[in-house]
Amino acid sequence: MLDNYSEGQTIRERFRSIWLAVLKYHRFRPKETSFLEQFECSPYLTPPLSEEFLVELKPISDLLAKSMEEGDIKSLPTQQFSVNHSSMGII
Q: The pTM is what?
């Protein structure tokens, strides 16, 4: 999903790249999106699986941390992002 993502891009370009990739994924895969939303709230999402998802989201969490550190976005607790990642379309 992060095919066009590059660490060499500006923070703004990286956010745009991620946002467009997520939007495109969910727009063209509504069944998968519905499944992921339901799965995330089910008892089948165990801590080991949750950790696997977090590894996949590392580029995104790193970008958010860097953006907060540089003052580009408001500083929020990291739990806020992990709790809301499906509503952002990132899972």
A: 0.63
Residue 1 and residue 20 in contact, taking contact as beta carbons nearer than 8 Å: no
Mean pLDDT score of the chain: 78
Do 60 and 73 contact (CB within 8 A), yes or no? no
Specify the DSSP class assigned to residue 65. Answer: H
C-alpha distances (whole Å) from 7 to each of 43, 46, 50 are 35, 31, 25
Helix, strand, coil percentages, rounded to 5, for the chain: 65, 0, 35
Of 31-35, 50-54, 86-90, highest mean pLDDT: 31-35
